[in-house]
Amino acid sequence: MPALLGAGRDSLIHQALLYGSETEFTEEALAFLAEGRGADDALVVIAPPDRIDLLRPGLPPECEFREAAGYFTTPPRSIATAVSVGRDRWWKDGGRVRVVAEQVWKGRDPVEVREWKRFEALVNVVFAGTRTSLLCAYDLRTVPSDVMRIVERTHHGLDYEPPARVYAELDRAPLLPQTGQVAHRGFVRGELPGLRDFTAKAAAVFGLTAAMPLIMAVNEVATNIIKHGGGSGSLLVWSDGGAVICDLLDPVGRVEDRFLGFLPPSPDQPSGAGMWMVRQLCDLVEIRSGGTGTIFRLTARLP
């Protein structure tokens, strides 16, 4: 695996390990981590248990291991965890972290897969300028071909493209149609208490009893529509059988920020904090914006 020319200690290095056997994975991953150990980097492995078992004997006790299924829950939550730990430990006092990560692709539905493809591009934005060396592992025997096409476009040293271009392409996928019974309510300024009550009752009808995170997310998006969009909007609540879904419609407002809610808020840029919170509260947030307004789709999966 060639080193990246010009990559310094304060730069993000985001590479891919494309492997076809367990032996290849183990040798390449251990060599990558050994370089970091020699430079006194923090060492982290995020992978399925069988991959962790392959690497653990060759790594020091201080290496941090996390199982992929528990870590890669949603892209925003995974980003939030990494940024929090990075600020508190990995990057503190000029430190650097070296991570081997292998995603779980099997068992995810097409919408989830699309969002994890988006994550591959987001890594280059969220962690730009951080002291991070990231090696993402992909088993060529099992990873879907459409995923591999995104991998090639989002990792340094391959056919890299600007993250915004990849992100925008993923946004061209249409939202899935609403199904079954749909509860609808319009809203304007002063009607947020009623909208929260409506959301709670509709969510309960569709089987979501612990609905407070979704209610808070709906309230935040509706507030943004009133303040920064068209001043009024509509809420549609429905279920696909496995989740409660809320569509908030702004008929005139447009979202210009491609990465809205994905970038961690900072004290000097507080404007993105609301949508950051929304993405943490929901299992999935999809945004489609254009000449006919904006749709914010919030999904809360049923237990």
Automatic annotation (TrEMBL):
Residues 14-155 form the MEDS domain. Coiled coil: none annotated. It comes from the Bacteria. The keyword Transferase applies. The keyword Zinc does not apply. Keywords: Kinase, Serine/threonine-protein kinase, Transferase. Pfam families: HATPase_c_2, MEDS. InterPro entries: Anti-sigma-factor_SerPK, HATPase_C_sf, HATPase_dom, MEDS_domain, RsbA-like_anti_sig. CDD domains: HATPase_RsbW-like. Residues 194-299 form the Histidine kinase/HSP90-like ATPase domain. This is Anti-sigma factor RsbA family regulatory protein. It comes from Actinocorallia longicatena. The lineage of its organism: Bacteria, Bacillati, Actinomycetota, Actinomycetes, Streptosporangiales.
